[in-house]
C-alpha cells in the first residue's frame, strides 16, 4: 500500500467525527469466547435460497433469521457487550437511524390509517441487516476475530457463483434482449442466484461492492495461499458481475475500483486511468457481444431510453410530490408504494426513498452514518499499524463509494442478504481503528513510563495473562 500516506488515524478521524471515548479504545483487546452462531450467521446470510427454501418455518416467529439473531446476541456473553457498538462512532448515528425507522413506522400508520400488510415484519428484516454492525463489533475484539469474520464472508461466494452460473446458462443468448427490452419479458434479467426474494439488480449489486474488499485484502495481505484464494474468488465475482447485465452495478464497481486504486497508490491509479482511456476501445471489443450491447444502452439519447430508465424518472417525479407534502419527517415507513399511482412501484433510489418516507430528518441521520463510516475507514487505513487493518479500511472506503452510487439506482441497504456485509465490514473497520488506537495509546504510555516498564514495553492488548479471543 501507499506508504507515503501520513500516520495518525485518530487525528484524521477527529476531523470527521467526534473523538472516541477512552473506554471504547481500551476495551478493544478484551478477550471474548468464540461466537459460533454469529460466524454461521455471517457465512449464510447471502444464501437466502437455503434458509428460506430448505429450512422450514416453525411459526410464531420461529425461523432461521430470528433464531440466529437471538443466538448471535447470546454469543456475545449474553449480550453484555452490545453497548460497545452503540457507543462507537458509527454505532451512535446508526442506532439513531434505526430509531427513525421505528418512528417512521408509526407515522406510516397515521398516513395510511392502518397498519400496512407486512410492514412490521419488513421493518424487522431491515433492522436485522443493520444489527450485523452491533453483533460483529460487540463480538470481535482482536485481529484473530477479524480474520474469522472475514473468512466467513468468503464462505458463501463459491455457492453464489454456482447458483448464478446455473441460472445464467439456462437462459444465455448470444445477444442481449429479444424483442422489446422489458424486464418481465427478459429472462436474462431474472437471474437472481441465491437471492430468493430479490431480483437480478440486487444480486448484481452484491458483486459490484463486496469484491472490492476482497481486492483490498489481496493487495494488502502478502500470504501466497491467502492471495491465491482471494484471487480465485475475485475471478468468480467478476464473472457474476459481468453477466449480471446491470448497468448500475457496472458503474458502481468502476467507481469503487477507482477509489480503491487511488488510496492504494496514486501512481497505480494514474496508470490504470491512462490505460483505461487509451485501451478502452480494445477492451470493449474483447467483451462478450451481449455485454457490449447492454453496456451501449448506458449512453443513449432521451428518445432512445429503455422502458426501465423511463419508468424510474416518472416514479422519482411522483416521489418528489410526496416529499413536498411532508419534507421534514416524510410520509412514513414503507408507505410510498401505497401512494404511487404508477403501478405501486418503489422509488428505485434509496436516497429518494429515505427523503420521501423518513424526510429530511432521516436523510441527515443517514448521511451522518455514511460520513462516520468514511472517516472511520480512512482512520483505519492511515493508522499504519497492521497491513490487515489498513486493507480493511481501504476496502471499506471503496465499498462505501460503490454502495453510495449503487443506491442511486435502487435500494441496496434495506435487503438483509445484500446489505448485511456492508455493516459487517463497517464494524470491522471500526474495530481495526480501535485496535490501532489502543496499541498507539499503550505504546505512548509505555514510552512515557520511567524505569524498567518503559524498557519492557507492552506485549499484549487486554488483561495480562489471558490469551485474547473474539468472534
Précis, in short:
This protein has 22 helices and no strands. The chain is mainly α and 471 residues long.
Features:
471 residues, mainly alpha, 22 helices, globular, disordered N terminus
Can you tell me about this structure?
The protein is an all-alpha fold and 471 residues long. The chain has one domain. The chain has helices spanning 9-16, 22-26, 36-44, 48-51, 64-75, 82-86, 91-112, 119-139, 143-154, 157-171, 200-209, 211-220, 224-242, 247-264, 266-286, 289-296, 307-325, 336-339, 350-382, 387-406, 416-448, 452-456. The radius of gyration is 23 Å and the shape is globular. Residues 3-31, 178-185 and 454-469 have low confidence and may be disordered.
Low-confidence stretches: 3-31, 178-185, 454-469
Oligomer: single chain
Percent helix, as a range, is 55-70%
The shape, in one word, is globular
Mean pLDDT, all residues? 80
Question: How many helix segments?
Answer: 22
Strand content: under 5%
Number of domains: 1
Largest sheet: none
Rounded radius of gyration (Å): 23 Å
The computed structural class is mainly alpha
How many E-type strands? 0
SSE pattern = HHHHHHHHHHHHHHHHHHHHHH
Distance between the termini: 27 Å
